[in-house]
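Worked example

This section walks through a single chain of length 505. The input is the sequence exactly as stored; nothing has been trimmed or padded.
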Amino acid sequence: MLRNSVGSWLREAGYEIHEAATGREGLALIAAKAPELAILELELPELSGLEICRRLKAGPHGNIPLILFSDRFTSSARRAECLSAGATACLAEPVQASELLAQVESLLRAPRVEVALRLSEERFRLATEALDGVVYEWDVWAGVARRSAGIAEFLGWRPEEAADSKWWPEQIHPDDLERVERHFAEAVASRAAACRHEYRIRHKNGHYRWIWDSNRIVYGEDGKPVRVIGCALSIDAQKRAEQDLREAKEQLALANTDLERKVEERTSKLVEMVGELESWSYSIAHDMRAPLRAIHSFGYFLLEEYGPKLDAAGRDYLERMDAATRRLDDYIGDLLNYGKIGRGEFPLATVDTTRLIGEILATYPNLQPSACHIEVQAPLPPVTANASALTQVFSNLLGNAVKFVTPGTLPRVKIWAEQRDPWVRLWFEDNGIGIDGKAQARLFGIFERLHPASDYEGTGIGLAIVRRAVERMGGAVGVESEPGKGSRFWVELKSAKSLLQPSVS
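Given that input, the structure is written out below as tokens.
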């Protein structure tokens, strides 16, 4: 009757059950089905529940929980005998459904928890073995440390060799030990929940590895640490990369220093060579002027005194020689001016551009009203410049503006300025023949001529002097032009307007 009730209770609770009528059938059913739990009556036909317990305990199914129930379990001696035989629990009849189901649930839960625990431990073991490091637990009170099996591969020691809590500090590099102990002591003194640091730890074969040690500190009620749980991971690769990076930076710094030294040496030699070349060219140009002027003078005397005695061909030769010597003298003069701009001191000061333009217009013959029309939109802003060099710049630009015009056209030039703080841009606009865009890039180069000397006189150095002088004054020069539409040259220099204004107190 009880057997039927037990089966009914278990089915209602949702359990799948298998039943047997005799002890031998029950033993065979257990062997065949390997159930999670077996419930037996103590008195069964053919084979008693006690004998079944003995046989299961001795066989491969000894781990199956067994519940025996009987009206004889009122005796503690009988219960002890059954428990010794292999029974997991003994229930005295009459058995209540709640009691039986509670026992079943309890006995089934334990193996499941055990299996889950084994799986969890296995996963943890695999995870720690996959780490290039070691997981540890330090029982501070007991002075014992437990470390994962990965320590064998990580540091060459077996876990049992590293059980003493003093073992780990003994392996820390002597140069790091004091810092590590101080850091941990500071963490404990401040009741920090964690302590993290990097240091070197000795491998069993004697070499050291860099590790990152991160742990959690568990404190007791008295505020003292009782347990430290942590993980030490290898950072050898990171440290090697940092060392390689430092060495690369040091090598790069040395290479840069050597390169800078070589550049300085070569620049110094180049400056010296350029200086010598400029000095030599200046000297040559200066020395050439004396014999050239002698040729010019004697040619002039020859033409004046003996011209009437010469035929037309002879006088033509002398006139050509005179023109050639004058052109060469102009070349030499411009070369000397170009050289002067690049040599020696070049002091800058405030220059009144309105006054300077007026002086140039008043003194240069080719800029007189009878030869051209020049409009100045005064006043022009003052600039920071070298007065002598700026005179050369303005006179060259104005000379070109009135020279390069279509034959028979009166040259017209307009001069104005625009403020571009902190700069001043001075414009020189003409009605000349204009300049092709492709030629503008080489316009300011030395000996650059865009037109034959037979059409327009000149040495091809004037605009090179302009650019060199303006750049030495810290400024810039440029041009806007189209063929047949005139040109607009501009010079940009630092404004000196603020220097001329009186201070206001």
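What to look for: The longest strand covers residues 208-219.
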